[in-house]
């Protein structure tokens, strides 16, 4: 059984997003039905809406940084009740049986996880639709609890930009006193700075844009390093315990690698394209490491949200109405947002 | 005080190696004076002799896979006595005070380790000379004990080719039952196959040359995978616990990365040049890792030699006389050797 709801999406690449009607399943026994309050705008939304990755199934309804309130729960759903504040991130299902799922790392599900949008939908035999919508129905195992004390609007981007930076910082055990570099100051990078600071690290913003220095410091960076300045790189050689590279396109790796300590790691979370070549000697001398990391699992996403509640951490955002989405996309592409757009879903309900 | 000894080396790039006389220090209180019996031929010898790395100081006397017998010991040297079988690898000194030296990882000495050849020599205020020579004087802290039971000629390459592959296999904890890929079957790769097999791993030789399959199996590979065959790569997707990439030049990384399990690592030990670009998505999906590794420290080199004594492991070699070195270099460059040349130093003494 389904119900028709309002959404915003597009029916083909190159077209602007427009109002749509979509079908949602009626909540099954383990489902939670969520009225969406806010939804963040991720660069992946744009890639999918425009079929940049050549895997879009139209109509596309983007949005995987979802904050809402529970309006109905299935008979067997135990974790949530009507009125609870909840979130939905990039995943709405996975196989739940493979080693990665068993390790709480559904984002590496070996049988393929189900994305919040543009994934096969086993319930309706169609494609999943995301959060640019008035409501969503999700299995409670993939629903997150949102702390009541933090700003809800700024919480939306935690579900993707937040967990994408939190997961590697925790997995590589960033701790008090570590010297941590965050490369790139955008939606991901600004969360990386906030988290690394809150974890007690000495945070160095690494950027090619001197104009970003002041903002980086106000977000929690203790130092700013201009990576195109050879002299500054030389001063930091072999000194970083960890570098998180959030730049969404291929970028020069050698200067960053040269600044890692022996056995230290630079983790790439942004550039889903061929990386720039780096020198083999750069990793051989010092046994250095380059790794990747993808969003995060449900368990660690909940841990991040709880941490954000305790430390009052949210994203810096700019609110928009649903009808402004196409202009917002253009500004995201120009990196003209500090640091994430969030859609007020009330604008879609009217 | 110095003594003049016979050596083979060259006085300029482009010139063939020829007989030279060089000065060695007379053994100081902590030194061991070693009569050299055998010396392996490493590709680095050629790079240095020919100034490929633009850091050669002539005359160059190459050689850092040295096997010999102790002929004199200093008054304070406690670990060796006259007649002991010993080895000298790539390092003859380091700062001994930095964190890496304190961790027994002199090869990552943060103040710069002293190479067996072509490094500044604090004793003679000149440049260190390597093992293409009748004898060498080395501080006992950088001398290795050679098991008496194994073939001495085949032991020489363990001091560089051996430890370069042993160190990453041990550091990344390769163990019984792991599926381990060894990329490239040369001086390094053939040792990687032997060690991974002896550690109990399921060893897959990964090569672009089908002609190497039989040799790889006789060395200990359980399977051979032709990496240019897309179908074979597909069969091994996400299945390797560890891959050791020994190819000495930049090589296609994406197929290897695609075969790593989640959280697994490919370690590069051969290519000291800009690596080929690989796809960011390849490491992000599966939290995979690329790392480098450089030879090994003194402690782990001794552990490797002891392991080789217990398991009767040596390199497969081809013996040459010192006078054949220039032809041998040409064959190394063409990868026309199974799998390492070793110089019988008796030929230099005559």
Overall description:
Two copies of one chain form a homodimer. With 350 residues, chain A is an alpha/beta fold. Chain A has two domains: 2-160 and 315-349, Quinone Oxidoreductase, Chain A, domain 1; 162-292, 3-Layer(aba) Sandwich (Rossmann fold). Chain A has twelve helices and 19 strands. The first copy, chain A, has helices at 43-49, 99-102, 152-155, 161-171, 187-198, 213-219, 230-235, 254-259, 280-284, 298-311, 325-333, 346-349; strands spanning 2-9, 18-25, 31-40, 66-73, 85-88, 91-93, 114-115, 120-121, 126-127, 135-139, 144-145, 179-183, 202-207, 223-226, 240-245, 260-268, 289-292, 317-321, 340-344. In chain A, the strands form five sheets. In chain A, strands 3, 4, 5, 10, 11, 18 and 19 form a seven-stranded mixed beta sheet that branches. A six-stranded parallel beta sheet of chain A has the order 14-13-12-15-16-17. In chain A, strands 1-2 form a two-stranded antiparallel sheet. In chain A, helix 5 (187-198) links the parallel strand 12 (179-183) and strand 13. In chain A, helix 4 (161-171) packs across helix 5 (187-198). The first copy, chain A, is globular and about 65 Å long. The two termini of chain A are 25 Å apart. Chains A and B meet through strand 16, helix 9 and strand 17 of A and strand 16, helix 9 and strand 17 of B.
